[in-house]
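Before drawing any conclusions, I looked closely at one protein's amino acid sequence and its C-alpha cells, quoted below without any editing.
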Amino acid sequence: MEPMEFNNRSGARESLGHHRSPQSTPNRTFHFKDDAGMVTFEFALTVPLLLLVCLAGFWVLRVGQLQAQVQDAARVAVRELARGSDTGAAAAAAQQVLPGVGLELTASGPTVSATTSFEATWPAPIWGGLSHRLIAQSTAIPEDSNE
C-alpha cells in the first residue's frame, strides 16, 4: 500500500506515510538588521526592574514582620501592667521584644492599655527617606491582687 499524498497550502505535494527528517526541513529563522542589540537592551531593562520588584517584596515582608513585633511588644507591656508590675517593667518587657520601640501606657477606668510605635526605615541608600510608622495598641483588665 502506497502512502496517501495531498497538496499542502503552498501547493507542494506531501505524503501522509512518510515523515520529514530534520535535515530536510528548511531553516526558517529570519534576521533583520534592526534587531541587533535588542536582547541586550531587553536584558538591561528587565533585570533592574526585576531587582526592584524583589526589593519591594522584601520590604513589604519586613514591614509585616515589624508590625507583628510591634503588636507583640504592646501585648507584653500591657500584660505586665495587668499583672501589677510597674511601668518600668512594662517598658523593659516591650524593649526585649523590639529594641527601640516607643511605648505609651495609659490607665482609664477598669482597663490599662499600651500603645507601641516603631519607625520602619528603608535600609538601602536608595530611597533613604522611605519610612513607615507602625503603631499597635493592646488593652487588658488588671488582675486582682487578692487571688
Residues 38-140 form one domain. The longest strand covers residues 111-121.
